Amino acid sequence: MKGFEIMVTEIRSVTTQNVKEILALQIADEQKGFIESIPECLEEAEEDQRFIPLGLYQNQIAVGFAMYGVFNGELWLDRFLIDEHVQGQGLGRHFLKKIIVALQQKYPCTEIILSVYPNNSGAIHLYESIGFAFTGNSDGNEKIMRLTRQVDTNLEL
Fold it and tell me: Catalytic site residue 57?
C-alpha cells in the first residue's frame, strides 16, 4: 500500500517571527501589476491598523499572503496571493474558502468585498467560482466584486 501525505493548512497572523518568510513569497512577473508587493502591503498595514495581514501556510511552509480589513462597515479582502512556486495546485481556491469561512465566523457580516483588475482573468475566474459577483462599481481602475452568501466549506485540495 502506498503512503500518503497529510496536508495541513493554516492561516497565521504576520508577526516579527514569520515576516521574513512572508516577505520571501513571490508572484509571477505577469501578475505583478495586479497586486502591491508584500513589503508595500505590510507598510500599509503598519500605517493603517484596520488592515490585518495574514500568512497562508501549507505543512508549516509559507505559501501565500492575504490582507483584510473593515472600512466604513464593509469587510474587504484587500489582498490575496499564492506564491508562484505552488500556483496551480488548488491552493488559491482552498485558502480563499478558508479565509472566507474564518472571516464569516469572526465578523457578523453577510458580505465580503474585493476589487480586481478587469484583465486579471485568472483571479476573476477563481472569485466567480467561489461565488463573488461584480457589483458594477469600481475602485479606481479595479472592478468591485461582492460575495453575499456562505461558501461551500469543503476545503479539500
Answer: no
Domain boundaries, the chain: 9-147
C-alpha grid cell for residue 36? 502591491
Dihedral (CA of 59, 105, 123, 157) sign: positive
Nearest CA to 24 among 38, 14, 34? 38
Contact 75, 108 (CB under 8 A): no
Position 155 scores a pLDDT of 47
Q: What parts of the chain have a pLDDT lower than 70? A: 1-6, 149-157
Task: Give the model's pLDDT for residue 109.
Answer: 72
Among candidate residues 57, 68, 107, 127, the one labeled active-site is 127
Q: Given this model, what pLDDT does residue 153 score?
A: 56
Q: Please state which CATH number belongs to domain 9-147.
A: 3.40.630.30
